[in-house]
Amino acid sequence: MPIALITGASSGIGQATAHLFAEKGIDLIVCGRRQERLYELKNTLGKKVRILPLAFDVRDKKAVLEQISQIPTEWQSIDYLINNAGNAHGLASFADADLEDWDMMLDTNVKGLLYVSKAVLPMMLARKKGHIVNLGSIAGKEVYPNGSVYCASKFSVDALSTAMRMDLLGNGIKVSAIHPGMVETEFSIVRFKGDEARAKSVYQGVEPLRGADIADIIWYIISAPAHVNIADLVVFPSAQASATQVKRN
Ligand code: NDP
Ligand code: 8X3
To answer: Quick check: 19 and 45 in contact, CB under 8 A?
Structure first.
C-alpha cells in the first residue's frame, strides 16, 4: 500500500485529501495541531486504510524533526508528501498589519513547509522515489492589496517548489505545486480571527471551490504516469478570473 503524509489534515483541503486518499487505498500519516480531529480521522478512515495521527505545530522545528524521524519503520516509505498546512492571518495594509500575524504566516507557510520537507526527504532519497505536492495559492502568483505577507509567503512556496524540483532532479522525486483561488474551508474564519459572518461574506454570491475539488486535483497529479510531472497548476472557481476579479450574483 502506498503511504502519504498530509500536513493540515485536520481541516479543509487536507482533510478532503485524506478522505479521497483513503478511498483510493493510500495509508495516511495525518498531521495538524488539533489532535482530536486527527483521531476522528483515524476512527472514520481507519476502517479503509492504516492511519497514523501525528500532532505537531509545523513552526516548531524540533518537534517536526523529532516526530517525523521517529515514525515507526513500517511508515517510513512515504510515497507522497502533501505540504498543505498553512493559513492567512489578517487582511490589513502594510502599515496597519500585526507583526504577530506576519510571523505566523512566514513561520507556518514557509518555514513549516521547509521543516517538514527536510524531515521527510531523507526517506524519499533513500528509496529514490517520492512525490511532493506543495499548496501555494493564487496569492503566490499575484499580489493583492492588504495581502502583503500572505502573498509573500505563497510567492515563497512558488519559488521553493521550483527550487526543489531543480535540486531534486535525478533523484526519482517529483515536485508539484497547486495554486488555488477561492476555496471555502476554515481559511477565511482563521484569516478573520473567528469572525464567521465576515468569513461567509468572502464567498457571497459565488460558488467557490471546495476542499474536495483540490483533493481531486492532487489525486490527478499523483496518479500521472511516472514520466509525467504536472509541475505547476493554477485553479479558480469559474466565477473568478484573478486574485481580485470575482463575478458575484
Ligand atoms: P483550513 O484553515 O481549513 O486548514 C488549514 C490547515 O492547516 C488545518 O488543518 C490546520 O490544522 C493546518 N495548520 C495551520 N497552521 C498550522 C501549524 N502552525 N502547524 C500545523 N498545522 C497547521 O484552510 P485550507 O484547507 O483552505 O488551507 C490549506 C492550504 O491551502 C493552506 O496552505 C492555504 O494557504 C492554501 N490555500 C487555501 C485557499 C483557500 O481559499 N482556502 C486558496 C489557496 C491556497 P490545525 O489548526 O489543526 O493545526
Ligand atoms: C487563498 C486565496 O485569494 O484569499 O490563498 O489569497 S486568497
So the answer is: yes
pLDDT, one tens digit per residue, over 43-68 is 999 999 999 999 999 999 999 999 99
Give the position, in ligand 2's atom list, of the atom nearest the Cα of 151.
6
203 is catalytic: no
Can you give the pLDDT at residue 91?
A: 98
Rounded to two decimals, the pTM is 0.99
Domains of the chain: 3-235 (3.40.50.720)
- The answer to whether the CB of 32 is under 6 A from ligand 1 is yes
Grid coordinates of 226: 511516472
Query: How many A from CA of 2 to the centre of ligand 1?
Result: 24
Question: What is the whole-number distance in angstroms between the Cα of residue 190 and the centre of ligand 2?
Answer: 12
Question: What is the percent of the chain with per-residue pLDDT over 70, rounded to a whole number?
Answer: 100
Contact (CB, 8 A) for 181 and 202: no
